[in-house]
Amino acid sequence: MSDDENVIPISVVDTDDYEQVMKKLDLIDQKVEFFNSEVAQRIGKKIGRDIGILYGLTIGILIFLLYISLSSIVY
């Protein structure tokens, strides 16, 4: 075996170019995070609405059943 097989390739980048690329990547990352948070918020609103409807139906049914049971006692 020779030493040529164990050589690790490296690259040299100008620091200004590297900083510009990192700033662009940070901007893209912020946009992706914002989009993901907006999607999660919309899903949360839909789930909250559905849970609210279920609670409303349940309470309405309970009130209706109490009304029927109490009205039968009075008459």
Q: In DSSP terms, counting alpha (H) and pi (I) runs of 4 or more, how many helices?
A: 1
Question: Structural class of the helices, strands and pairings?
Answer: mainly alpha
Helix content: over 70%
Spatial shape: rod-shaped
Strand-residue proportion: under 5%
Catalytic activity: 5-methyl-5,6,7,8-tetrahydromethanopterin + coenzyme M + 2 Na(+)(in) = 5,6,7,8-tetrahydromethanopterin + methyl-coenzyme M + 2 Na(+)(out)
Membrane topology: Single-pass membrane protein
GO cellular component, one term: plasma membrane
Protein name: Tetrahydromethanopterin S-methyltransferase subunit G
Briefly say what this structure is:
This protein has one helix and no strands.
